[in-house]
Specification:
The protein is of the alpha+beta class and 140 residues long. Helices cover 31% and strands 44% of the residues. It contains two helices and seven strands, in the order βββββββαα. A five-stranded mixed β-barrel has the order 1-2-4-5-6. A hairpin with a 2-residue loop joins strand 2 and strand 3. 26% of the residues are buried.
Length: 140
Amino acid sequence: MAQTIHVDVVSAEESIFAGEAEFVVLPGEAGELGIYPRHTPLITRIKPGTVRIKPAGGADEELIFVAGGVLEVQPQVITVLADTAIRGHDLDEAKANEAIKRAKEAREKAQDKQEVAAVEAELASLAAQLAAIRKLRQKR
């Protein structure tokens, strides 16, 4: 039997995933991270993107979009504290495209550098969400 590690993915609103997994892949601040059981302890920020979780027992891989947050890795537990987290099957391409349209309009109306930076961050997150939607569509 393969070794496993407990994984918790939570957002401010709810727990998105809690269970045993064979490995986890996610977008770390310095690049994509692959984490297996007994990984060395680690704390890092995560960028907007897709968290891939391979559940124990051969179940289908779970895809979860996160809009940033913090990752904590301990030898037996992985905790993802996400700003926003959405299960792959709950992602809506039409809503994401509409949000991008609104963000681009907001960028044009932005009055100062701080507003522009906030809108640019939102656009980056929405682009990562669209990439997650496309990745999920390819899996199907």
